Amino acid sequence: MAESPSAETPLRTVPLDALHRELGARMVPFAGYAMPVQYPAGVLAEHTHTRAKAGLFDVSHMGQVRLTGADPAAALERLVPGAIRALKPGRQRYTLFTNDAGGILDDLMVANAGDHLFAVLNAARKEADVDHLRTHLPEVEVTVLEDHALLALQGPAAAGVLAALAPEVADMRFMDARAVELMGAPCFVTRSGYTGEDGYEISVPAEAAERLARTLLEHEDVAPAGLGARDSLRLEAGLCLYGSDITESTSPIEADLAWTIGKTRREAGDFPGARTILEQLRGGPPSRRVGLRPEGRAPARAGTEVIDADGTAVGMVTSGGYGPTVGGPVAMGYVPPWLAKPGTRVALRVRGKDLPAQVVALPFTPPRQFRG
Amino acid sequence: MTTLYYTEDHEWLAVNGETATVGITDYAQKQLGDIVFVEVPEEGKTLAKGDEAAVIESVKAASEVYAPASGTVTEGNEALADAPGTVNDDPMGDGWFFKMTLEDTGELDDLMDQEAYDAFVAGLE
Q1: CB–CB contact B37 A298 (8 Å)
Q2: Would you call B36 and A322 a contact, using CB atoms and an 8 Å cutoff?
Q3: CB proximity list for A49: less than 8 A, separation 6 or greater
Q4: Which of B34, B36, B81 is opposite residue A299, by nearest beta carbon?
Q5: pLDDT over 90 at A372, yes or no
Q6: Is it the case that residue A184 has pLDDT exceeding 50?
Q7: Which of A17, A87, A101, A235 would bridge A112 by S-S if both were Cys, CB 3.0 to 4.6 A apart?
């Protein structure tokens, strides 16, 4: 179980802890780790810099695991609805661990690294996920890469910056994955991220992480960015935060993640919760995740009620705040299917007042991943 | 003559006779981070000490500004609606929240002066 640590539990530190402190980061507890929530520039500046040039994020609290065995892809398909066997070497895919009720246990990225699968798991869920994998896939060897940092270099300048260290990364397309040597260290690089921008995530041996981070930060286009900016960037990009936007009580269909279910998997219906999930795919889900754009300036935070034209609370905001690139408040949440159409007018009950808002299509900012 | 008072909630009051201008301190704006929304009270609103007087939202969270003393609002800083970041840039100046007529200047005795507030903040860091 992913338990929150008590006050006595010392926070775990990431390999770049000293560098974050040297850069003046404000360190906060997050999923049991001391993590940088922002640097002196602040969340707004880090957010806009990432969209304009490139932000360097430390996401080493996330779980990195290697799945090896005779056929780890076939095995993993027993736990996720994604088409993992169809994933070609050098490609990555977003998928979900589902439970028998059709709820989501976690979302994860899986890459076919040739002789093994490489997966990235949410920090707060990684121990539960590893237990889940080991319990249900006894024939697969699950190796947790405790001695690796994970850096995300995100933004339109990311490709130029990283290609200066390894020219081959320039040829990668969105969701490509490959082993790359960076400054002499064996790294695993994917062209993906959590910002809606072009960029890379770099799995790097812990002892080489600081030298790599310092070299990337020396580039004039690169600035450090914390978890605060990461959250506002992913919200504008319409990407889900596990534990808020997707949970054990939301299905992939409700979460508007039907696209993650492979065609062959739909036909076979051989993943946990398939009965409920496929039923919702055919008949429609009881609620749907949508974008919500407040018309005024007041942000609507997670937990804000969504109100219909009759004044009835019919839904809930699951993520919300200020979108620096949008220049105003943005949110996402769940509404009944009959209110899910973009353009539908609803209200959000903020501090007892019903503020007008519109259902909008996600993402809030145009996706800029590099598709070649 | 204007005298500055502070609360433990990191609000300041610049008091001149029976009128006071209210805002949040530099320490408060730094803790909040980038401020993206401010809602100030309207002219004529009566406030009892401790009442919720204004709302302030940063990129991180929403928080309230409580009335540091009882009285009647004479002006809200409407400029903050379009430029909430002013609170970060100039918390003790253009980033003021509202002005009020004090009901009982005796309530000010419970507040801190500059020296006491500086010591209070030093104790938090």
Answers
A1: yes
A2: yes
A3: A41, A55, A155, A223, A225
A4: B36
A5: no
A6: yes
A7: A87
Query: In this predicted model, what pLDDT tens digit does every residue of A143-167 receive, in sequence order?
Result: 999 999 999 999 999 999 999 999 9
Ramachandran area for residue B17 (φ above 0: left; ψ -120 to 50: alpha; else beta)? left
Q: For domain B3-124, which CATH number applies: 2.40.50.100, 3.40.120.10, 1.10.3210.10, 2.160.10.10?
A: 2.40.50.100
What percent of chain A is predicted at pLDDT more than 70? 98
- Give the pair of three-digit tokens for residue A356: 């007008």
Alpha-carbon distances, residue B109 vs B4, B5, B52, B68 (angstroms): 12, 9, 21, 12
Q: How far is the alpha carbon of A7 from chain B, nearest alpha carbon, in Å? A: 19
For residue range A17-70, list pLDDT tens digits in order.
Answer: 999 999 999 999 999 999 999 999 999 999 999 999 999 999 999 999 999 999
For residues A168-175, give the mean pLDDT: 98
Helix (H, G, I), strand (E, B) or coil at A105: strand
Q: What is the pLDDT of residue A7?
A: 53
Separation in Å, CA A354 to CA A59, A319, B39, B58? 37, 18, 15, 21
**DSSP helix/strand/coil, B17:** coil
Q: What is the ipTM of this complex?
A: 0.85
- Indicate the DSSP class of residue A41: T
* A298/B34 Cβ within 8 A: no
Residue A1 has pLDDT above 50, yes or no: no
Cα nearest neighbour of B32 on chain A: A42
Q: Which CATH number fits domain A1-285: 3.30.70.20, 3.30.1360.120, 3.40.50.970, 3.10.20.30?
A: 3.30.1360.120
C-alpha B34/C-alpha B22 separation (Å) is: 20
The share of chain B scoring above pLDDT 90, in percent, equals 95
Q: In what order do the strands lie in the sheet with A148-154?
A: A177-182, A185-190, A199-205, A148-154, A54-58, A222-224
Q: What is the pLDDT of residue B125?
A: 77
- pLDDT for A38 equals 96
Q: Do A301 and B60 touch (CB under 8 A)?
A: no
Q: Is the pLDDT assigned to residue A5 strictly greater than 80?
A: no
Nearest-5° Cα angle at A291, A285 to A294: 130
- Could you give the angle at which helices A227-236 and A43-52 cross, rounded to 10 degrees? 60
* DSSP letter assigned to residue B107: G
Residues of B with CB under 8 A from a CB of A: 33-34, 36-37, 39, 55, 57, 59-62, 81
The two structure tokens encoding residue B73: 């609002």
